Structure formats: structure tokens, C-alpha cells
Amino acid sequence: MSLTDEITDALAKATGLPFKEVYEYLRRIRENDQFPKLPRAKELPTISDAALANLLIALLSGLPPQKAHVAVLRLADASVSYGDHKHIVQSRAELETIGAPLTAFLDQEHTFTDAVAALFGMARKGPAAFEETFRWTWISIDQRRFSGEIHLQTEEFTPLPKSVLDVLIEYGPPEEFFRGDLQIHARLSASTIAALARAADRVTP
């Protein structure tokens, strides 16, 4: 099985979506240079955290595959909403304790895509540990506004679980694409991020 198929299969199983549908999203964003073209070779290039973030964003967008690249572009420009960064700063000690790449959240100019990529960076350091420590963390996209949310929650076990970090971060687009009251959110948990990280690095669960 090619790495592209392994990634598609892992994401399909994690989300419950058909393999063909997930593959179509991957194929379409690859055509727009938002995901790498992977050759069939033993020595494959490392897939960046940002590329994995793009794939999740495309899948969460609610747009048909041929238009999903638009959501990837818009969420790449979605920045931390006004006032939200103070909650991140208040969690500075916890973020620094957990370490890079989650310290990317401390950059006031970081975007939604940067944040999702940072989660992949943590997951790839150890998918099993990430899945346990970040088990209540989730990412969400409003399919009308193209805004995003991340509920960043981590625990440590000593031996009982103890909350280390718990913050909700909202990301708004640079311009409003939808001004109505209707909100349609798509959400994925840390377990899907861990599954995709395993597949991208061919880590056996």
C-alpha cells in the first residue's frame, strides 16, 4: 500500500468517511500544491505538519472536494480573535512545560493552520502519549464563516489524571464570508490527529 493510500485509509477509519471520499479531498488539495505528491519509493520525503493540517481542514470544510482548497487558503489566514490571546498568555507556563512545538501558540500572529500543525508536531513526537495526554482536545471549523476553534486541553497522570492546560481559542477570518446567524460546525478530536500522524510516519499503533 502506498503512503498516500495509508494516510487516506487511516483518516477514513478515524472519521468514518468512505475511503474514496477522503482520497478525493487529498487529491484535490494536492493538485493545488497544498499537499505533497508522494512518489512510490522506499525513501519518501517527510510530510510536513502544515500539509497534514491542510488535509484535515479540507475534510472539515463542508465544501465539495474540488472547492476544498478555498477553505484551506481561508483558514491559513484565520488569526486569533481579538482578546483571545490573553488566555493563551495566561497559559504560558503550561505551554512551555509541554514544550515545542506547542509554544507556537504563544505567537500572537499565529493562524489556525499554524495551530493545527503544532498539534501534529506534538502528535508525531509520540502518537500514543499524545492521544492520552490530549484526549479532550478538539479542533472545529465553522463551515459558513470559515472560522476555527481549538479546545486545547491536556492532562498529566500522577497517577490520576490532572488538568495541566484548558483553553478555548477562536480564530476569525480576515474578512467575513457569511454574516447570518447560522453556524454549522465540524469537529475532530485528538484521536484523529494521532491516527493521521501514525499513518504519515508509518508508526505502528
What does this structure look like?
By secondary structure, the protein is an alpha+beta fold. The protein has one domain (3-201). It has helices spanning 3-15, 19-31, 49-60, 68-75, 85-90, 92-98, 112-123, 127-133, 190-201, and strands at 79-80, 138-142, 147-157, 161-172, 185-189. Strands 1-4-3-2-5 form a five-stranded antiparallel β-sheet. Helix 2 packs across helix 3 and helix 3 crosses helix 4. The chain starts with a helix and ends with a helix.
Brief rundown of the structure:
The chain has 9 helices and 5 strands. The protein has 205 residues and is of the alpha+beta class.
Features:
single chain, 205 residues, alpha+beta, five-stranded antiparallel sheet, 9 helices, 5 strands, 17% strand
Topology:
Layout: H1 3-15, H2 19-31, H3 49-60, H4 68-75, E1 79-80, H5 85-90, H6 92-98, H7 112-123, H8 127-133, E2 138-142, E3 147-157, E4 161-172, E5 185-189, H9 190-201
Antiparallel strand pairs: 1-4, 2-3, 2-5, 3-4
Helix pairs in contact: 1-2, 1-9, 2-3, 3-4, 3-7, 8-9
Question: Helical residue percent?
Answer: 40-55%
Structural class determined from secondary elements: alpha+beta
Overall mean pLDDT: 90
Termini distance? 17 Å
Number of helices: 9
